Amino acid sequence: MMSCTVKNGQPLAPAAEPLSVPWWSFGKTVLAATALTLVRDGLVALDDPLAQGPFTLRQLLRHEAGLADYGELAEYHAAVARHETAWPAEEMLQRLDAARLRYAPGSGWGYSNVGYLFIARLIERVTGLGLEEALIQRALAPLDIVQVRLARVPGDLQGAAPAYDPAWVYHGLLLGPLHQAVTFLDRLLAGQLLPDYLLTEMQTLRQLGGPITGRPWVSAGYGLGLMSGAIAGGLQLCGHTGGGPGSVVAVYRATDGEHSASCGAFLQGGVDGDVEATVVRDLRLALGRAE
Fold it and tell me: To the nearest whole number, what is the mean pLDDT of the chain?
């Protein structure tokens, strides 16, 4: 288990020698922040229909676009388990019948990596940059996050999943030190990248229900690239959990009055609830709310 905590913008302990780990679905928060810089700069609008279909950027970011997810394909899981090379994106979309919406955009909710593939393509099209360069220029570098890159080939994930082809993460798999993920989230939610109105939009949630068995949430919701919810003791967490073959990561921020803390944890093996429990424990300690 690896963990890192920032309180009131400052690390609680010096960062260890940086070890790059896969950020898994925490990368959705980076993609969302990057897309919202396009909104900030007047290059796209949150609520205009996009070229990929009858849905908006807001609906893609909040998993409300009606899209399916390739995680529902048994052959996808079998191919990953056999350490196969990722299918080309268009083949994946065809196998999934991705053009067929599963519900009318805005009328339901369904977690979809395909939606974030479309967001990645939108970022590339609007900026004229490759995805990695766009994420660096528009979101990572402005927050002084400098040790992060996209994993591209098997072996990039080193000890985490050395045989895994990162191209299976069709919207891009970020790789970097855990403390950089924590610092990114802390600075993002402190208002150092986006104006207040977009931070408010980012944290406006679609409520998804009550307690989740085996996980710390009392209630849970999803914003624009952010998971958020209440935990026991009255704290509200905001960030993202993600996992892939062999590891899980969770990065969250909580605010208690004038004080804030952000924490991340990375675990080889285990499940979402294990890594989230570590984050919750460390956030409570940092904010003086330990049970």
Answer: 94
Total residue length of the chain: 291
Tokens describing residue 247 = 């590891």
Distance from the first to the final alpha carbon of the chain: 21
The H or E element that residue 213 is part of is: none
Residue type, 31: L
* Closest C-alpha to 111, from 165, 58, 167, 70: 70
Q: Determine the Cα–Cα distance for residues 28 and 191; give it in Å rounded to an integer.
A: 18
Reduced to 3 states, what is the DSSP secondary structure of residue 166? helix
Alpha-helical regions (H) of the chain: 27-40, 57-61, 74-81, 89-96, 113-127, 131-135, 178-189, 196-202, 272-286
pLDDT in tens, 35-55: 999 999 999 999 999 988 899
All domains of the chain, ordered by start, with CATH? 2-286 (3.40.710.10)
Tokens linked to 222: 């999803």
